[in-house]
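Notebook entry, structure prediction.
Reason for the run: the old model in the group folder had no record of what sequence produced it. Starting over properly, with the input documented here first.
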Amino acid sequence: MDSGLYPLERGELARLAREYMLIGHLVDRAGIPQVLARFGLDAMREVAIQEWMGASPVYTRRMQTALGFSGDDVPTIFKGLQLDIGFAHQFMDVEFAVTDAHTGEFWLRSCGALLDAEPMGDDVVHLMCHDIEDPTFPATAVATNPHAKILPLHRPPRDPAGREPHCHWTTTIDPQNPPAEEIPLTGLVRNSLLAGLELDVLPDAAPGGRSDYSGEFDPAFEMEDLSVPALVTVCKEFCVQAHLLVRAFMLTLAERAGKDAALEITGAQLTGIGAIASERLRNLVAPESRDGDAGLNTILRVLALHPLFMPREYVSVTFGGTGDAAGRVALGNCPALDEGDRYSWVALLAAEPDHRAMNAIVRGVNPRAWCRPLAGDGDAVAVWEIGIDPEAVPEPEPSEVALTRISSGAAFELSSRRPPA
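New structure, fully documented this time:
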């Protein structure tokens, strides 16, 4: 049983699922600026396209299986988009309309990614909304039907300025459409242990909510519609989506610039998003600690929920220590360490336990916290000790975290728009 998720109730799990969606979306916001800084705009564009095209067909099919929906029609495509970290709920405020099995539309009343890009000028907006979206939307749809086309009715740069909805797209399926083809990277991602990971299914332990997403497409779908077991599954799958995106990112970088560069840039990515994820999860599970006075128990609770260490079927980790004493995090042998190329966040930390990412992650919960590696013992591959120095002067925020914080998603306030059904 997953001790990180199971104690939570339906409403709590629904809120956590939205957090995992948004954090997964921000993984890209933490990594891509690092590529821009090192290699320039053209490389940033190519890496962004490759990582999403490499990961999204794989995780889209996983989610279809996990929530029991399948098909080759537009409603199936739209269900997948509703459960895709690329369309993080509320930050990407999407509405859908299905005309029939082969035709539909969706539009973004508000797009947080656009609002982040617009201050940087029309060239950056065009890069995101044209250069990147044109190949990546079909790549997501290809998991359902290679003959699907997603085309804009209108999209940014906004004309007139302030136009709403921010963009509007049609989706059509026609056997006469030339089929979209997967890129080679997708096959590499699909062949990973992560892509084939089997998740434990929680018994139906609490009443209420739907256990899957079979049946009719619901344009008003919310996380609160799902049962406790389905929400546990969705939370895990969102973390898998983020790990798959990271894996595609690392493979792309390694091919372009070599393994050392891939590890360096992905380490910076983890430092940035790791701290932001800790901060957001702290605000979720211990909102009274927003001012940075979280205790050790809160730090350990946040780490137990942190997407770095989720799902447990992929990352074997244990936590110990309570009260004012130092805490302990122990990483064990697990599939995340068994990928042949070791392209995962967890393998990166196992190889370099004193990586700055771990300090950033604990300080995202409490800026006076510290983390230091210990010698591994027993079956532990890596061990960290965690504590709090109440007299410490908080250090300046790492540049990787500040860069990730440029996205408005870092501080975006999610809400429960309705109680569990």
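Summary: The radius of gyration is 21 Å.
The old model has been moved to the deprecated folder.
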